[in-house]
Amino acid sequence: MGLTWQRLRFNLLVTIGLTSFCLLIKTISAQEAQQPWYENLPAVAMDYKVHIDAGKEDCYHQYVQAGATFYVSFSVVRGGDGMAGFAVRNPAGEIVKPYQWQATADYTDQVSPGGYYSVCIDNQFSRFAGKLVNIYITVVKYDAWDKYAKEIEELQLNMQNFTTTIGTVERNINDMLGYQAHSRHRESRDYALLLDNNSYIQTFSISQIVVILITCSIQVFFVRKLFEVKTTSKSRI
User: Fold this and answer.
1) Are 68 and 112 in contact (CB under 8 A)?
2) Which has fewest Cβ within 10 Å: 64, 119, 170, 220?
3) Higher per-residue pLDDT: 118 or 175
4) In the structure, what pLDDT confidence band is assigned to residue 113 with cuts at 50, 70 and 90?
5) What phi, psi does 67 have (nearest 5°)?
């Protein structure tokens, strides 16, 4: 009887332990699922091309850690008058970049308070034409290099100059990525304009050829009518 009771007690403890372990794993997995995959990266750069329908507004959200540098730029590639509204809200919901109807715009927050930024593209003033918009976003944590430096200093290595150099290189790389994004925006816009002009010229040329052919046919028809001789025969009685 005592042996059976010990077995039941052991099975009960094992069941409780396994249940607690499974709940702990689920809790950790849920917390990791809520965190963006790029949260622990020192720098993230994203480039999107989105289509905004006529009379619509689309908003996109980007998570930024506290102390990181947030940068976003947009450029209208094609569609309508080539302009759209652009606005940015900080994690507190305040509009830090008011709406302006323009072809290109950008915004930078050197020290972010942390949270989700909202980037909105407004095409409500264009009632008939959709817009193709290029959005470029970077999130850079310059203090991440200080963290790496502290870890290296624990190994009794003097890496101050190395850390400063790496930070400078990282800032220069971020600036170059921004310039490259602007260059890609201009290239995409020029290429779209080139395709539109080519299509317009082809359509206009074909229509002119058709008009000329129709005009020549009508002229030939009426000129032949002018020189047409009608023969009449009179019968004698």
Assistant:
1) yes
2) 220
3) 118
4) confident
5) 90, -10
